């Protein structure tokens, strides 16, 4: 792996993966399956890192290790200077599945983190309503999750994540099931919210355009066992407008570079078939 | 669509009664199968004399009390064992053994332990209901997505909050499957108890009338039992609707692929 730019970060890293390897028991036989190997990666506070790689290369595994759900087999994950052991409560998760509680209305779903924190009902409701407004769900607060569209559930899930207000957002292919337009809207919203609130974000995707549009930098992974092929700095303006980004020549250059990196493997004849 | 469905059901029901009426005395002696007209006559007698309601009240009380006791204990045990994986593994063969035992085989022992009054029928009913509700609650707890629980733990939820906010509501759907499945067994428990030992209740009424060759009376009691079963089911459905309003929303959604 080599860094794309040699400018060392001015801030100490918030997140660092050092010499990470993670193996699982192989699904058949009693061998082991190496999910990720030799991963060294750092992320500064307030930055957005996109993690790009084919299915099964260990992207989710990496996020799980930062959240403290999995322990690395080898190496250490450090968060704010301390080794992650046990659940890392400064992180919040959002995946392809929105994980809303089907028995709670949208409002009550968004309010759940405040209830957990023991906030009085009235102020919890007021704060949840603000977030519902922020993600554009006003008018749907009394609907059950099954009654609204997939995009709205995603917004509700995002609002709940913001209610919980973790320092670092772990987003694991959150927009996979959305159509192109909705997806773009959600990406734009996510980027502007994360910047406004100063969130650090690790965003997993297997979509090259999404990785380029959203990230401040992008870690491109090889197929399993996942190794970092390259960390690419995405030198697009921090306040980029995602709606018009496709016309930006710098964007085109970066996307082309990412495409080149993700297709290198198959061009080298190592085609991996993964689901 | 809906109207024609009701119509055909009516036709079938009336047809069945007609067949019964015609067959009685022509194909089979009324001593064995009585006839709809005779049953209706006997039923109105039993209602008029107040006898039917006296017995029905007792059976209903036994079935409902046993049902509440059995399912209440089952829900608590199901929740606890659903969380305590190790303990559940240890107990598994014992539970399965008890599950495969026809509970009726226990009835004589229950008579010995608890006598022949109502408490025996209530405890017996509870034992019959317990396993069905327990097994459903247990699988409900086990089926709650671990990811969902992790999402809540990452929000800082304590174990108790996870149980209260995620596990119990998620298991509720399954609990109700268990309740609906076991409601008929609650009646079986109460009525078997009354047939084996007792001098009150609809089960006793069936046993007594049959022994006296009052076949119409036996059928009248059976009609009352069916009615009780239907009412019990309706009660559970109503409870389900009020406890799980989100389920109706799911059902009301138009089905689309
Ligand atoms: N809990 C687990 N037990 C066993 N194998 C796992 C587990 N989690 C992930 N894996 C395996 O590790 C590999 C990487 O998985 P994952 O991190 O989910 O990939 P990605 O998110 O990049 O698609 C896959 O082969 C997957 O089957
Ligand atoms: Mg994944």
UniProtKB/TrEMBL annotation, chain A:
Annotated keywords: ATP-binding, Nucleotide-binding, Transport
Residue intervals of the ABC transporter domain: 15-250
GO molecular function, one term: ATP binding
InterPro entries the record matches: AAA+_ATPase (IPR003593), ABC_transporter-like_ATP-bd (IPR003439), ABC_transporter-like_CS (IPR017871), ABC_transporter_ATP-bind (IPR050166), P-loop_NTPase (IPR027417)
Annotated Gene3D superfamilies: P-loop containing nucleotide triphosphate hydrolases
Keyword rRNA processing: no
SUPFAM superfamilies registered for this protein in UniProt: P-loop containing nucleoside triphosphate hydrolases
Family affiliation: Belongs to the ABC transporter superfamily.
Name of the protein this chain belongs to: ATP-binding cassette domain-containing protein
Native organism: Pseudooceanicola pacificus
UniProtKB/TrEMBL annotation, chain B:
Biological process annotations from GO: transmembrane transport
TM annotation in the entry: 63-82, 94-116, 122-141, 162-179, 218-236
SUPFAM superfamilies: MetI-like
Protein keywords: Cell membrane, Membrane, Transmembrane, Transmembrane helix, Transport
Domain ABC transmembrane type-1: 56-240
InterPro entries cross-referenced by the UniProt entry: MetI-like, MetI-like_sf
Pfam families in the record: BPD_transp_1
Membrane topology: Multi-pass membrane protein
The keyword Nuclease is assigned to this record: no
Domain of life: Bacteria
GO cellular component, one term: plasma membrane
Chief site of localization: membrane
Compartments where located: Cell membrane
Similarity-based family: Belongs to the binding-protein-dependent transport system permease family.
Protein name per its UniProtKB record: ABC transporter permease subunit
């Amino acid at each position: 792996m080599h860094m794309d730019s040699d400018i060392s970060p001015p801030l100490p890293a918030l997140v660092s993966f050092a010499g990470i390897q993670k193996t699982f028991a192989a699904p058949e036989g009693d061998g082991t399956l190496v999910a990720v190997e030799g991963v060294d990666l750092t992320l500064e506070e307030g930055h957005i890192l996109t993690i790009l790689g084919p299915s099964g290369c260990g992207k989710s595994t990496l996020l799980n290790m930062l959240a403290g759900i999995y322990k690395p087999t080898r190496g250490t994950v450090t968060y704010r200077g301390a080794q992650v052991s046990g659940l890392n409560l400064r992180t919040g998760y959002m995946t392809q599945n929105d994980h809303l509680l089907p028995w709670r209305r949208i409002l009550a779903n968004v309010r759940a983190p405040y209830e957990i924190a023991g906030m009085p009902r009235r102020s919890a409701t007021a704060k949840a309503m603000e977030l519902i407004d922020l993600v554009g769900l006003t008018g749907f607060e009394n609907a059950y999750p099954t009654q609204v569209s997939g995009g709205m559930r995603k917004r509700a899930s995002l609002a709940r994540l913001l209610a919980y207000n973790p320092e670092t957002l772990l987003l694991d292919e959150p927009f996979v099931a959305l159509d192109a337009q909705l997806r773009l809207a959600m990406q734009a919203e996510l980027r502007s919210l994360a910047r406004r609130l100063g969130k650090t974000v690790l965003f997993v995707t297997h979509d090259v355009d999404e990785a380029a549009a959203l990230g401040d930098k992008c870690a491109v992974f090889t197929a399993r066992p996942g190794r970092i092929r390259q960390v690419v700095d995405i030198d697009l303006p921090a306040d980029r407008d995602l709606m018009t980004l496709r016309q930006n020549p710098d964007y085109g250059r970066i996307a082309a570079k990412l495409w080149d990196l993700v297709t290198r493997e198959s061009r080298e004849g190592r085609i991996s078939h993964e689901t | 669509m809906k109207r024609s469905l009701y119509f055909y059901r009516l036709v079938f029901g009336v047809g069945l009664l007609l067949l019964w009426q015609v067959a009685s005395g022509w194909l089979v002696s009324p001593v064995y199968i009585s006839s709809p007209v005779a049953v209706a006559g006997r039923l109105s007698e039993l209602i008029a004399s107040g006898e039917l309601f006296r017995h029905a009240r007792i059976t209903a009380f036994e079935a409902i009390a046993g049902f509440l006791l059995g399912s209440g204990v089952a829900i608590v045990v199901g929740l606890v064992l659903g969380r305590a994986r190790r303990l559940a593994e240890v107990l598994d063969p014992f539970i399965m053994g008890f599950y495969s035992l026809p509970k009726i085989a226990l009835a004589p022992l229950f008579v010995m332990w608890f006598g022949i009054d109502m408490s025996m029928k209530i405890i017996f009913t509870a034992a019959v209901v317990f396993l069905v509700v327990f097994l459903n609650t247990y699988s409900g707890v086990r089926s709650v997505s671990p990811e969902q629980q992790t999402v809540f733990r990452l929000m800082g939820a304590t174990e108790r909050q996870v149980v209260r906010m995620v596990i119990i509501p998620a298991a509720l759907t399954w609990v109700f499957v268990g309740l609906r499945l076991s409601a008929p067994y609650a009646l079986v428990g109460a009525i078997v108890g009354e047939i084996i030992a007792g001098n009150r209740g609809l089960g006793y009424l069936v046993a007594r009338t049959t022994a006296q060759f009052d076949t119409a009376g036996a059928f009248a009691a059976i009609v009352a039992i069916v009615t009780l079963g239907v009412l019990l089911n309706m009660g559970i459905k109503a409870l389900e609707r009020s406890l799980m309003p989100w389920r109706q929303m799911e059902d009301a959604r138009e089905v689309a692929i």
